[in-house]
């Protein structure tokens, strides 16, 4: 059984995109290039990658969902481009399973109407995992945690962990 942990990299979306833009900026391209060269090549067991796009609640839910999906698609395209630069080898693009997920405003990490909360909710999450099962469980765990706000009892948060993160053999 592979014991490598699932890695979550959470970045503000303005690191990759200018406000309301669907075009990846220079810093976003640089981050992805380093993700490939410094993380994925150095840790070949991480073959499952999910890019999850999030927005704040400004605008309609439908537009936010569309924007988050488009942005995650663009990051996946850039990631695939960087992997292709390595060549079609054991660490090339075909040896990775990469998915793009857009969740819009449905999973805020801040549950207030303040502008700072909106900034925190505009983000990209990159999940790296050695297996699809571990990746799926981690994504469900994160979604479960997003369901609760800061006033949730610790028992509810523990239930999330027990339901999704305890490995049963």
UniProtKB/TrEMBL annotation:
Gene3D superfamilies: OmpA-like domain. GO terms for cellular component: cell outer membrane. Keywords: Cell outer membrane, Membrane. It holds the Pfam family OmpA. It is found in: Cell outer membrane. The keyword Endoplasmic reticulum does not apply. PANTHER family: LIPOPROTEIN YIAD-RELATED, STATOR ELEMENT OF FLAGELLAR MOTOR COMPLEX. This is OmpA family protein. It comes from Candidatus Electrothrix aestuarii.
